[in-house]
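The instructor's notes for this session suggest beginning with a concrete chain rather than abstract definitions. Hand out the sequence below and ask the class to guess, before any prediction is shown, which regions might be ordered.
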Amino acid sequence: MLSERRLEVLRAIVQDYVGTEEPVGSKALTERHQLGVSPATVRNDMAALEDEGFIAQPHTSAGRIPTDKGYRLFVDRLAGVKPLSTPERRAIQNFLDASLDLDDVVARTVRLLAQLTRQVAVVQYPSLTRSTVRHVELLSLAPARLMLVLITDTGRVEQRMIDCPAPFGETSLADLRARLNSRVVGRRFADVPQLVQELPESFEPEDRGTVATVLATLLETLVEETEERLMIGGTANLTRFGHDFPLTIRPVLEALEEQVVLLKLLGEATESGMTVRIGHENAHEGLSSTSVVAVGYGSGDEAVAKLGVVGPTRMDYPGTMGAVRAVARYVGQILAES
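After discussion, reveal the predicted structure:
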């Protein structure tokens, strides 16, 4: 374990390097920070930090920069994240409150995160598997053609066309709509199959084929793999950090184009806590020079999806973590009220 003094030196190096983009020397540290010790002591502390792999010397200059291990310790020992100012919080709330629907909420969240953090923002759509049914609507488009509309508690809307095996009258349609909603509204998606399995038997024989077809379409909608959708924004922000990527920015951009990679980066949506993965902690090779800050959001206590940012390891961690957490909280409130 590092002594508290050496931890203070490491914190000062991280802060200065993030702020100035220049390797940090002992003289600059003692001038900028109230460390309470002589430059010679700071030099000794820096030598010890370098021996333990927390900082490194990028070239022959006297300055040092944090390593992935150094950033990791800095984040793990953070006293707290940087709170947003009152005007910033008000601006976030006003911007997100103006959302029209779920797609607009996600699009606005991506823009907001990218602007606040000046990093790449990634927002996962609420997952159907962690949602409950708010309403099922059935509309007649033709005598033997229906449209099913599934609305979730997170504001997600899924539409499906259904070709029925036989004409289905308005009275039967109203009856099916009422019985279906009485069984599934407010219930978890995982519970729906069991709740509706005996429904066809309660209809007249000539209507059972159509009822079974409607239920099959509903159940397919609940389990479709296409539920894992993402929106990404602010990729152009990476161009400001060209020198933070050792060789080229290209591997980072290529990795960001792969949805599977991004989903793995964000992690399981059920994890509502904040995760910070730094440099080589990211399994994808193209992202070994980046850090990912992600957190779950939801309309209640349980997270229904994740949002976060991707940027260089030379990141303002307290500020980024504060912004990501604040935005997630507001998005959760909007979903709860929608």
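Then share the key points. DSSP finds twelve helices and ten strands in the chain. The chain has a mean pLDDT of 87.
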